[in-house]
Amino acid sequence: MTRMEPRQHVGGFTLVELLVVIGIIALLISILLPAMSRARQQGNVVACQARLRELGQLAVIYANANKGSLPWGGDLSAGSEVVNGVSASLAYDWSTKLFAGLNPRYGDTYYRQSLNTSALPYARSIFIDVETPTGWGGLQYSCHPRLMPQKNNNYIDPPTNAPLKPYKLSHIERAAEIILFFDGVICASNPSDFIGGTHESNTYWCCQPIATYLDGGNLGMISNRNSLNLPVNYLLSARNTIAAMNNGTSIDAGTNQDYMGPDLSATPGPTANLCNIRFRHMRDKVANCLFCDGHVESRHYYGSKNGVANVCDILRKNVNVNQ
Prior knowledge:
Strands 5-8-11-12-13 form a five-stranded antiparallel β-sheet. Strand 2 (80-83) and strand 3 form a beta hairpin. It is 25% helix and 16% strand. The chain has one domain. By secondary structure, the protein is of the alpha+beta class. 36% of the residues are buried. The chain has helices at 15-65, 94-102, 110-114, 120-123, 216-219, 242-245, 281-284; strands spanning 74-75, 80-83, 86-89, 92-93, 141-143, 156-157, 162-163, 179-183, 186-188, 205-207, 286-291, 296-305, 308-312.
């Protein structure tokens, strides 16, 4: 007769113990996820700063090859040339000029560089901010409108009644305080893709190469970005001017939004922020800026502060330049 062995009790977790473990795991996740998200955002800031430093190095290389002068901000009416039997525009901006110094085989105009579309997204990656919509764009940084102005013989500087021209690096006073390149407001090739304030990925995202609305709103100096004349004393730190007296105050940072309209007029609302600096990092609170001496800093957007709208820690002394 076979003797029955007593059944052994197999240990395990009770329902209460499982619930406690699940609760602890959920608590840890809730603590770690925000920290991981912030670390990822900070990583994007650092990556953006690295690209701006590269742009600064390219600007120095360009200046050394061009009698110390920075490039023009752009020229959309530069005429045309014949390329492979086709009439091609000679239009360019500062990024195509700097890129040509790095990769001469691509040329220095929009048209010539567009002939290499398969290689450009990778090759021009230093001109693309890391925290922007996924639709590829050719440029997502803007330049200072006085240091690197639009090339146009009718673009007149009122204090001198002479056409603007790019500054020489050696001519820029307080180079460690003046910003040259920075995160720009991006716009879509098809504004209708900007739905409900969100970015769609099936369009071409880029920014205006020249920040012609930099600090324009608060000073009331620019009423139309298509105007060929700068307002008197705009972004100048000359003595006995309003700009000089306000050097220690915040610039008007704008609405800190990307472009949402089909025109370039300075109408109220998000469209008025085109051609301006964009604080896109760290949840729309931080913008990276390259200064004229080559160093990069992060600056912060505060919105309304002490009853003043569009406040940031970029001061007028950081944008107002010597004549």
